[in-house]
Amino acid sequence: MQGLLDHDQITLILPLPISVNKAFAGNGKIRYKSGDYKAWILAAAACMRNYPNYQITGDKWLSVTYVFYMPTVCKNGNKRVVDVANREKALSDFLSWNEKKQSGIK
Q1: Nearest to 55 by CA among 102, 104, 19
Q2: What is the pLDDT along the chain (106 residues), one digit of tens a residue?
Q3: I need a surface site. Which of 14, 53, 57, 102 has the fewest CB within 10 A?
């Protein structure tokens, strides 16, 4: 694994995350990942295989910047309001889960 210096930057290009509103399904008592969310996780994981493993060592802060490229106009031409935080949650969970998996944390 490669240690990161303060000035290093990692750029990951992943598929547009699913909205957290569509990420989970359930019957009122049990919540589980939806089929669309599982499909997005598999697609994002496949993209991650194209990148080298990195390890952040020492007492460093991690700064994360997300850039989402998403349509803000519907197919019918109407503008729509986009809640980016709904997409960010799925991405943050995925990256956190992927880091735990790589480091052996359960």
Answers
A1: 102
A2: 444 444 567 788 889 898 888 899 988 889 899 999 999 999 998 988 888 776 666 666 667 778 888 777 777 777 777 777 888 888 888 888 765 555 554 4
A3: 53
16/80 Cα distance (integer angstroms): 17
DSSP string spanning 30-67? Answer: -EEE-HHHHHHHHHHHHHHTTS--EE--SS--------
Strands (DSSP E) along the chain, which ranges? 2-3, 24-26, 31-33, 54-55
Whole-number Å distance between alpha carbons of 57 and 3: 6
Residue 79 per-residue DSSP state: B
